[in-house]
Amino acid sequence: MPFRKRLFRLLASINRVVLPKLWSKDLLRLTPLQKAIVGYRYWVTRNAL
Questions:
Q1: 22, 28, 35, 47: which sits with the fewest CB atoms below 10 Å from its CB?
Q2: Is residue 48 within 8 Å of residue 8, measured between CB atoms?
């Protein structure tokens, strides 16, 4: 497995433990910080797959 993919999988596993889960909330009503967290988690997940 390439180093980049391993790195993003490690980041994804850290995100699961550290960052809050926001998928059950309405995305239109999130604060800017929560939107940034959702975007970051999406970016890491996309690169980990």
A1: 28
A2: yes
Q: Give the integer Cα–Cα distance in Å for 4 and 15.
A: 16
Residue type, 40: Y
Q: What is the pLDDT of residues 16-35, one digit of tens each?
A: 899 888 778 888 899 999 99
The packing angle between helices 3-18 and 32-48, to 10°, is 140
Do the beta carbons of residue 44 and residue 12 sit within 8 Å?
yes
pLDDT for 3 beyond 90: yes
d(CA 27, CA 14): 22
